[in-house]
Amino acid sequence: MFNSIAKQLQEAKKIVFVTGAGISQESGIPTFRGKDGLWRNNDPMKLATIDAFYDDPKLVWEWYSERRENIFAAEPNLGHKAIAELEKFSNVIVLTQNIDGLHQRAGSSKVLELHGSIIKIKCTVCDYKDEVLTEFSDMPPLCTCGNILRPDVVWFGEGLPQDVWQEAIVHANSCDVMVIAGTSLVVSPANTLPIYAKQNKATLIEINPDETIMTADMDLSIRSTTAISLPELVSVFKKT
Ligand code: OAD
After folding, report:
1. pTM of the full predicted structure?
2. How many CA atoms lie within 13 A of 61 on its CB side?
3. Buried-most residue among 58, 81, 158, 201 (CB within 10 A)?
4. Is pLDDT of 35 > 90?
């Protein structure tokens, strides 16, 4: 699978992974687009914008509670685990659009969460932030200051956490290999990360059963799932 770029992988000083919902699909977490995607039967404008939240915080929280339950019950799959294992052989950074925390649970130590985390909550008014793994008894949950709490995730129309994004750009622009795994690359600004990598003449590898809008820019496209192909990528290092 990776023979044609084995040398680039083995000699890379920094390997950056850009991941999306597809990498968690084999853990039983649905993707957003495609035939079983969450956005097929749910309108993101009614569930994942700040206006939707203020229109109906209970509805948005109920949707997030369902997702929290599913995500907390899920386990990292062979794809997440392979990326974590790769740290034994190389300098690995994960830039993920996922909010499920599965990279960290698999053991990856350098993960930047571009779209926040479903484990985290924050107050809509005061500075309160926390990590909560239990369910909330009241919907919507309230802060001790009396205002509504919200999931600490990035919704459509909101900016990414600036410190996280700045760091992500620096890593993308200084990597030798970028592996783009399980993302449709349709959501901005995360989908500009391969452009930063290309400016550094990095080798771009895409892992996705389907073509993406950036397939033509890739040095290698693997048409397979991440749980199958990422362990193969790690095996390139075990052969040396
Ligand atoms: P998408 O649902 O847009 O894309 C998932 C991609 O994963 C598709 O290209 C699939 O072909 C691919 N895929 C599916 N199963 C796979 C598997 N087992 N192995 C590898 N690839 C697989 O998800 P994202 O690109 O993550 O944002 O979407 C980006 C953002 O859009 C999300 O973070 C979310 C969403 O709206 C917000 O909510 C702000």
Report:
1. 0.97
2. 18
3. 81
4. no
